[in-house]
Amino acid sequence: MKVFKNRLVVSLTISLWSICVSSYSNEPNGEIIKPNILFVLTDDQAHWTLRTSGNDQAYSPNLDKLASEGAFFENAFVTTPVCSPSRATLMTGQYASELGILDFIPQPGHKLYHPGKATGLDPANITFAEVLRDNGYRTGLIGKWHLGDWTESGMDRKFHPTNHGYGYFMGLTGGGESPVDPNLEKNGEIHQMKGLTVDILTNSALKFIDDHQNTPFLLSVHYRSPHSKWLPVADEDWAPYENMEMRVPHPDYPDLDTDRVKSRMKEYLASASGIDRNVGRLMKKLNELGLYENTIVIFTSDHGYNMGHNGIEHKGNGYWITEGDHPATENLTKNSRPNLYDQSLHVPVLIRWPRVIQPELKIKKTFSNLDWFPTLLEMANIPVPEDKILRGRSIVPVLKGELVDDWDNDLYTEYSMVNYSTAHMRSYRTKKWKLVKDFQDPRRDELYHLETDPDEKNNLVKEKRGEIRDVIKHLTYKILSKMEEINDPLLDSITK
Questions:
Q1: What is the spatial distance between Cα 336 and Cα 496, in angstroms, rounded to a whole number?
Q2: At 336, is the secondary structure helix, strand, or coil?
Q3: What count of Cα atoms within 13 Å lies in the side-chain half-sphere of residue 245?
């Protein structure tokens, strides 16, 4: 009888929640309500930078509150751990290798920029911003784009965000800018602005919300923090860390420069706290304007970050943070460590969707940036264009509490590093195993048993045991099958 009563309570709870969800979607006259969407994307922000993720040294009260009011994803990843490829995947729902964006896009003035070879996201690749715009949304992007714009002769609007579905743009089209007194584009012109970049971008976002409070909007706020360099930050963002003795991930890693890790960790987390403070400003504005209950708020990052993990710093194009140098090799520059570590791929994802997502929902299912495109369209009750290629799937059923038993939790990732060093890495990850193959140099292949080694410290790829060889064979097949499915250009070079 007790079991029966518990099941009845659960059933009634789900039914009542479904009624709330249904009433959220429609006016009394049957007209569909379009929710506003505030999409906050940060740069280089690891999953572990939030207290919600278990890091008690992180100061993130506003994001922790956001997580408590909605969903927190425990297993969210990107498919390429570097800026431009990851952002291309986010916007299109396709792998970066399909789009021809393999590594970060250098801008004029960068030593890797080649005049006459401007690259970017081809406007033929439809973005979710375009679909939302074409279905009644006012769209704006404030912050970092890094999917093309500048050429040696000036601005080429072919790759500009206003040619990818955003009706308004203010920010930086390239990859890097100072954390203070930045040069930002506004109304089609570059201006040097005074103040902290993170605050300037928020000021512009607040104005956009003010100006569009009476119409459905998609506002993408792409902060350049906590990308280095991290300082200066506001005094209030530095204060929580000023006297804190920072913990070092993997402190027993051979030759790790622990003093440098501690120093840089403090600056990095302070920069992340600047993001948290400004998310609080955005939430306050929504509340003041009465938009708090009809705005979906999303927070995530373009990829993860290492800070001493496995002896390296940075992301997919990482470098050693050890006392001694690692000499250059045939394919790698000095101290270079290209990688597909989970720390480079694992990102924070928080979603607040009032009356749809139950508070404090913890999602364990694997989610990737391929999934944003279909998820956002389903949130807005907009069908996916018929001719649109999508590699991801909507997670809305999971957000609504529906039982989804056939969710595939495997993850395929890729990174062809062509800037600075050369590596052509492809990886397949299951709950138990993760294989990384570097088709540029098979000596750099890696295999990790994630169930016993979640920190990826013990590379088993050279072991001769039959079980290990079988796993490598199976996951290699998975990698090659995925490469064939998406017509990965690398496949041609390795099969010749």
A1: 28
A2: strand
A3: 0
